Structures are given as C-alpha cells and as structure tokens.
Amino acid sequence: MRPLRNMKRIEGSAFAITHFLSTWLQCYALMNEHQETANSVIFLRPPAEMGPEPWISGIDCLEAFTKIVFTNRVRLTRSYNMLITNSYNISSPALEIQDGFIKLINEAITQSTERGRRFYQLRTVFDNEPYVKQKLGDSAVIFTDYYVIILDSVELLRVLMRDFISRMVSWNPGARFLLLYNNPLRRDSEHEIAMELFTLLQKQYYVHQIGLLYSTGRVDYSFLVMDYYNNANCRTIRVSKIGECKNGIPQPTAAEVKRKLRRFERDIEIKNCTFKMCAAVSAPFVERDCRTGLELLIVSFMRSRLNFKIQQTCEEENRGVREENGTWTGLLGKLFDRDCDFVLGGFYPDDEVNENFWASTCYLSDSYTWFIKLADPRPAWIALLHIFKEETWICFIVLLLLTWIFWYFFVNMLPEPKDHKDFSLAGINAMAVSICVTVEERPECFASRIFFLAATFYGMNVVAIYTSKLISVFTDPGYLHQIHDLEEVIAADIAFGGPDENQDWFQNEDDIWIFDKYNDSDLFIPNSENLHAVRHGERVILASRMYVLQDRIADEVFAFPENVFTTPLQIITKAGFPLIPDFNWLIGAMSDHGIFQKLENDFRYNNTYLNRISRMRPDFKESAIVLTTDHLKGSFSILFVGIVGGIILFVCELFYYWILAPRLRRGSKEQKLKETKMKHTKEKRRNKLDHEKKPENKNKKRNLCWPFRKFAGKKTVALKKKKAKRRERLDNKTHEIVLVESLRFTPIKRRHIDLHGFY
C-alpha cells in the first residue's frame, strides 16, 4: 500500500508543477535529462491546441501542397525518392502532423498503381540515434528528389541538417524542399522564422528550391517560398507569399496556388545575376589573357543564351585534391569555400570530386600521355643503311654467299675456261653482278649463262629499289632510337611525373610501380618552362595532348603512342548549383548541332596544318638540296675500311713472301738435299752390292749385235749436240709470238708461256 500512496503523491506533485509552469512560464514539456534510460520528451498541449483539428488540418495542408510543389518534376525512368524526417524531439501538434503524414504517405505509396510502379520511394531519417554513413557502390547511390521536413524550431532544422540529412549518401542540395513549421509560441513570427530557415538552408547547404508552410493559427497556414533570384537584388534572400491553407484546403483554390507557383518559377530571370567563374590557365581551354579558349567560348555562348553575367578570374592554379582533414586545395578549395560558383580549365571530376561537387554534361574530351625528348636526328650516312631493315640486309648477305657458291660450282662442273674457275674470282664476280657492275669473265655454257642473267636481273631490281629511296633519305634522314615506354625511361634513369591529381590513376596492382616513382612537384606541372626541360631530355611529363599540341614546341617533343587516360571535360560546380540543368540542356543542344565537333576540328587544323605551314614559310626560298660530306660519311667509311684492310693484308703478304716464304723454301731445299744425299747413298750401296754379285766383264752392249753396237754411242752424242744448238738459237734471237685461237689473255691473271713449244 505504501508504494501505491507514494506513486499517487508523485503524480499529484508533477501535475501541480506542470500546471504552474504552463500558466506562468508557458512551458509545455518536461524531460528528465539526468535519467539515462529516458529516451522521450513529455509535451503538454496548450488549451487552445486541444483536439484533433490542429494536426488533421496540418496533415491535409501538407498533403495538398505536396501535390502542388512536387508536380513539376523531370521525367525519370525510376520512381521518385522522397525523404521524410521522423524526429523524436518535437512538440505537439507538429508531432501528430509528422506521424499522421508518414502514415498517409505510406498508404498512398502502397495503394499507388501508376503505370505499374510505385509513385514514390520513401525514405525516413530518425534523430534518436547518431547517423553512421556507409560507403556504397556508385550503382547503389540514388539521390533524393524531394524532402519533407516537419519542424517546431529553427534549431531542430539545424540539428537535422548537420547531423543527419547532409551526411547521407543520397544527399541532394538540388532537390525540392517542403518545410512545415508549427509552433504555437511563434504564430506571429512568420517572416522572421522564414528568413532564418531559408538563410540556414541556402548559405550553409546551398539549397535554392524551398517552400514553407508556416502555421499562423490552429488550422491556418501560409505558403512561403524563397525568392533568391529576384530582379531587384539578385542572389539575395527574400520571402514571397504564394498562397494560404485553411482547414486543410489551399486558398483561394489549389489550382490558383499552383498557377501562382508556376508563374513565380517561370518569371525568375537571372539577367541581373552575376556568377563567379574561376578558371585555371590551361591552353587551349583557357588562355592566359582570360578571354580566349575553347571552354571560354562555350561558357560565353551559354551566358548569352541564359542571359546572365560572369565575374571571371583566371590564374595558374591546379584543380586541387582533398586533404586528409577533409579540406580541398586548388580551385576546388575556393569552390568549396563558395568563393566561386563554378570552375573550369580542362578539368574532369573523378569519384572523389563527385562526392562533394556537381559537374555538367561532357562537352569535349582530351587524352593524357607521357611526353619525352624527341630522339636526335639520324646521320645521313646511317640513314643509308636503314633504307632496308636489318633482316633484309642479312638476306642480301646470305644471297651473296649462295650466289658465290653456285657460281663457283657451275664454272667448275661445266667446261668453262680454266681462268674462270678461281674461287676468289667467283666471289668478286658475284658481288659485282649483285650491284650491277660489269665483269670480264662471262660464262660460255648455257646453264651458267642463265644463272648469270638471273643474278643480273636480281641486282638491277635491288639497286633500283635502293636508289629510289635516296632522295627522301637525304632530305629527311629520320631519327635515332626513340624511347616510347616507361620501362625505357626508368632504364635511362629519367625522372617522370605530372600533376598531383593524376597520380591516383596509377594506384592499382598493375601500375603501382608507376605510382611509387611518380613525381608531383612543380617541376612536372605542364607549362612552357617544363616543356622546354622535356625537350632537352631532363624529365618526362604526363600532360594533355591538346595542351601540348597548341604549344610552339609540340613538334620538338615526342608523345607516347598509347594514351594513359582519356578524360571528359566538364564544368565543376558547387553541389546544388541551380544552373546545372540549363547548362546540361544547352550542352546537349550544342552537341546535337555539331558545335563541339566544329570547335575541335578547327583547333586541330589550326594547330597542325596552319601553324606548321607558317613555321615552314621562311624556308620556302631554299628549294635546292645541297649534299655535304655528312651524306658521304658512309662512302668514306667503306673506302677507309678497304684501305686499312688492304694495308694490313699488304704488310702480311710482304712478311710472308720476303721473310717467311724464303725461310720455308730454304728449309725445304735443305731437307730435299738431305733426302737426295741419303737416296744417292742408298743407291750407291745398292749398286755396290749388285756389282759385287755380277761379273765385271758383263755389259749391255755385249747383248747387241755387232753393227748396232758400233753406232749406239754415236747416235746419242748427235742428239745431245742438236738440242744444245737449238737452245742456243732461242737464247740469242728475238722471237715473234703468233697467237693461237685457243689462247686468251686477261689482265686479271698472269700467263706463263713456254716458247719452246713453238719450235
């Protein structure tokens, strides 16, 4: 019984305290802040707000104006996303309006069968627990299209936006916001509260489309909108009243309120509005004078069509990246701080940028690649060697050897003249025929003649093809080996790098070695000074092809054939920028009419053909091509090698014939004499033995008959005398040589003629 009595006493005391506070201090809620288990607030309605009429009318008004405000939608291929706040720290009757509208919209979504899909996709955010942001894939992120927020104080909106709504993955500052404010204590502060709410959303979160249902009585609401782009003072916040709502019915009618709202949106003009454009000097998109450039031409066209003003600044600044603390550097830092409305300068928004900023539709594209020093010009005498590839020269040498061997084979197997059958002579003749030089030893057999003709036609074709390239090689000898990939750059120990925002391209498993050695200092920022360093071979820079193409030294640096990355060019804006839909519409129209293609074609034509022609114009007077010793270095080299080789062989032959050969002959003569002496010695011994065995009185003459034995010795003596007289006559007389038809002379080979054969 005692606990029951204590409970009744506590209830009585609480009632007395709340009645006193509600009477004198106009307090309508109690909360035990020190009790950890307490997760709700007890609100007490004022007597004037008792009954269901205040919150029922609030639900009806909110439903009616939802249909009015959210009807002007862009047609999408998906259901529209609506987010409703479900706050625990809210007073009555806003609490009942919140719960009732959530129930109503759920029933409407469940029962909707418009074209076989749901009318809305509903999302709800609660403020009873801290919001934890989770990283989702790009395909899972669907931005919110409409926001419905029910409030009873400005502080509640500030907490909801700061801790919950703006931290959501689906946060969209460009969506339409419909606020309902109902606080019985602030019925007469319509303009003041509206200004605070609009200023909070626009200045801190860059929201531009805001509608407010402000409770001015138990069942009365005023519908207010933020007039930010007004004619008098553009980009200043003003409050405009469009209509009213009483007992859940728009006044004067729903159609009239809708008509007024559409007229208000249609009459918005930005001709007096000035937007801040920050551009990075990046030719050809933005030139240094901040007046010309491809992107400036596009922005100028959109400015003239949309009729707004631009305050533009151009500076040598990079795009910027996000730091670890969440701040941004470069132009994106200025855009994040709202010092600029949009930025451009050959930029593209990557995934990191898309999380915090908006971007227009792509209007141009550019490719990035590595730029390195152009290889040195190839000397003309080396260019003569490179008319044919190395494999072709090897084939020529192999064919020369085969021709040599077959020539030697034919002349030795066929009855050709004996002077044709020398091995070295066959090689000289084969080489001479291969380069179309006449030879003296022409074949006499049909088989060797056919082979000779085939070798002759082969040499004529080779020489004709080779000489046809001489003029082009002399005028444009080409370049030495050109480095064309990063492996060769690393092997040559050349530093490479580029802008810091491009380093993320290589943060993957295949290119991590590039990421580790990538330099992002100021020495690797694409500009004229650094490109001159590239021309001298000091570094390798990752740069835009279009940027380098418009530079004067575009023909003096080499671009890798393969692109590292191809990027779309887009205008980057603050999230929620109101002109993005208009920008995208104009970009689409310009693309359909071929304006962007015309700009790109004109740029490439002007910076390739016309500029190169203008650079070549002073050289038009020099029409004659003068050959110098540089073109003949190859010929001089061949002659020098031949002379040196001949001298070396000459010395070797002198050494052989004057020193080594006589010694070899002397040694061979002595050996022969020894062998002859030994042979004579052996013969003497043999004759001596034979003489001892035979009788001394035997003689060959004894075997002859007597008449022959008498004249045998006399005949031998007569023959010897006759030959001696003939030799004497030959030695003392000058003889005239009569050429025989079968005897031929040639300057290549010496002939030894035995004159005794003619006598």
UniProtKB/TrEMBL annotation:
Compartments where found: Cell membrane
Entry GO CC: plasma membrane
Leader sequence segment: none
Membrane topology type: Multi-pass membrane protein
Keywords: Cell membrane, Glycoprotein, Membrane, Receptor, Transmembrane, Transmembrane helix
Main location: membrane
InterPro entries: Insect_Ionotropic_Sensory_Rcpt
Bias (Basic and acidic residues): 689-698
Positions with biased composition (Basic residues): 679-688
Residue ranges, annotated region (Disordered): 670-698
Chain ranges passing through the membrane: 393-411, 446-466, 636-659
PANTHER family: IONOTROPIC RECEPTOR 20A-RELATED (PTHR42643), IONOTROPIC RECEPTOR 60A (PTHR42643:SF24)
Protein name per Swiss-Prot or TrEMBL: (Mediterranean fruit fly) hypothetical protein
Taxonomic source organism: Ceratitis capitata (Mediterranean fruit fly)
